[in-house]
Amino acid sequence: MKDNKKEETRKLKVIVSSSPHIKDPLTTHAIMRLVFIALLPAAIWGVYEFGLYAGLILVTSIVTAILSEYLFEILTKKEITISDGSAALTGLLFGMIISPTTPLWMVIIGSSSAIIIAKQFFGGLGSNFLNPALFGRAVVFLSWTGLLNRWLKPGFNFFYFVSGTQNLVTTATPLDLFRLHQLNITPSLYSDLFFGRIGGSIGETSKLLLLIGVVFLLLIRRDIIDLKIPITFIGTVAILALLFKQDVLFHLLSGGLIIGAFFMATDYVTSPVTPLGRVIFGIGAGVVTFVIRNWGIYPEGVSFGILSMNVLTPLFDKFLPRVFGTGGKK
Amino acid sequence: MRILTFRKGGVHPPESKFTKDKRIETMEEVEEVLVPLHQHTGAPAQPLVKLKDTVKKGQKIGDSDAKVTSPVHSPISGEVVKLVETTLPNSRKSVAVLIKNDHEEIWDDSVKPRNDVDSLSREDLLKIIREAGIVGLGGAAFPTHIKLMPPPNFPVDTLIINGAECEPYLTGDYRLMLEEGESVIKGVEILTRILGVKKTFIGVEENKSDAAVSLDKIVHSMGLDKDIEVVLLRTKYPQGSEKHLIKAITGREVPSGGLPFHVGCIVQNVGTTYAIKRAVYDGVPLIERVITVSGSGVMEPKNLKVRIGTIASHVIEFCGGARENIKKIIFGGPMMGFSAYTLDLPVIKGTSGILLFTDQELIEYEEYPCIRCGRCVDACPMGLMPLFIDGYSRMGDFDKAEEFRALDCIECGSCAYVCPSKRHLVQSIRMAKTEIIKKRKAVRK
């Protein structure tokens, strides 16, 4: 009897590996999916306000991102990674930060260059230094500025389709008006900004739903988005607005600051890994955003604020934490 | 009681202390034991017995003249049937003595209780501890008598008893504190006499506050409350790391590359303290220890007092056997223990537990590219950048890994625990450390 048991244990097929032997269940795949879900309410709001065509843009962007990644990996004989959800997330984000009047061919160019040029050319997930979605936006925005600067009036016609662009009812965004010094600050403006009843990119307008997404992530796990970057980013914009005697609340609720600070500046791959580096990243992005909003040639500076800090991230990574047992008090 | 902790880093894995309420059982019955001669850090002991020798319980069967070493004793009376090279749970090789039990339990003449403990000098006590083969039972198995003799130019003013037991699953120290509290405190008294320290702290994690309260009561009833303070520690891994325990309790920081005595501290584990009491008062050398046998693969998880050298598969049989779908065998805790490929390995002095994992707790993840999320940076209690050391180590750039202070890594596993891409960070950092040390040695030559 005893010998039998011994035989059994000898035949064990077990895994031998380095410690630790237990792991936190949170995976990279899960993080991508959770962030995707957190963005959905604001994205759906964009479709509701700007019409079915906005939904078509989002779907086209997501499908293009996934297909681009798939085809690139097939052609370069790399492992297919579309199941990690990162490409889909990039596609969703790109769709959310462009105008609801963007022609589909331009969506395809932007979304595919986000994946192929910004991400895959640099080695795929984890190796890119620019936020892919923001890079895609920069590509189309700089190439076809005029075409993209047409903003739909929210809720004008759910079933309008892009073919008859002459009939579009466009509007200036609050930030456009602000730059032209034509902005009338009324109490209802703040609620329009907060609830997303303004012109703007598809997914950036409803601050309420974006913040609900943030709360959703924080409720699931406190560590999915590190709040150091959003807090310092938004805080810097607020302080600068205060210093320049501008309307603080207007700055915070306008444009892409909320979606940018919470969902794009916090992109792990393109932001610093150290606590101090993240703080400096947030401050820098806030400064650039504010400068462009006031004195740049574009009305909105969030995307360039983040992109410029993306480039500096390797530098910020040099702000190392103090190693235990070195310096400081003994 | 104060609640203390270290600030930077640390993780909160599920505690999984399923054996918390199980009294320590003793596993008496063994047919044979395989006692390795090199269970400790330092020079291996040389065998003092040969084939067919009859040995008694507590008889010294291995020792060495080296400075840093520790003797080994037989945990049973019986006959030496084999001297073989064996693999230890930590995958080191050692000569081991296979002894067949004669079930007579005849004690060696050297094992005698002492009535004159109070009159023993510091040197006497150190000699007893050395001769009893006592090593750190927390896992590192460093010879205790060496640790108790810090260089004279580093005065030690604080003794810390490590009752943190921050590893999930393990409950042996907890049970010892609850069931053998008086012996533990007696062991503490001996340590304070040897070190001549005024202040002793016993650090216990909050999740074991009942043990802390019970120890505190004993300290008061023995009138030692002026010298010994029981402190609660926040339940956070790796609270029981020597450096972090010192930091939490005294605020002092062991310098990089330094040892506790550099900041006037000596840390001893609860199990070691108990073993010291046994050796000094009862004259019994270190021939048994408390281990936790747990994990979903064990039929009846237990806290078990086993003889050193007991084969793990016999221990598992004593615990009702193993389930069929065992995926992993771990000697020690799940964060820092060693995974083994077989249960035919002996329990050694440094074995704090045997865990059998099935699919229930073991999810196999595939390694994914680093997404630079920085969780490892936040989790590292040493303030290191595990992702960069990992990257350089994999590229073979060990100079860069050294620049990022790979050698400061205590291998606690916090980084790999939190990594969402499930990267084998500890493994690659360990590889870097090995290469850096190899290179340093080569330079010295």
TrEMBL record, chain A:
The chain crosses the membrane at residues 30-48, 54-72, 79-98, 134-152, 198-220, 227-244, 250-269, 276-296. Keywords: Cell membrane, Electron transport, Flavoprotein, FMN, Membrane, Phosphoprotein, Translocase, Transmembrane, Transmembrane helix, Transport. Its cofactor is FMN. It is an enzyme of class 7 (translocase). The modification FMN phosphoryl threonine is found at residue 173. Its EC number is 7.-.-.-. The complex is composed of six subunits: RnfA, RnfB, RnfC, RnfD, RnfE and RnfG. Belongs to the NqrB/RnfD family. This is Ion-translocating oxidoreductase complex subunit D. The lineage of its organism: Bacteria, Candidatus Aerophobota. The gene is rnfD.
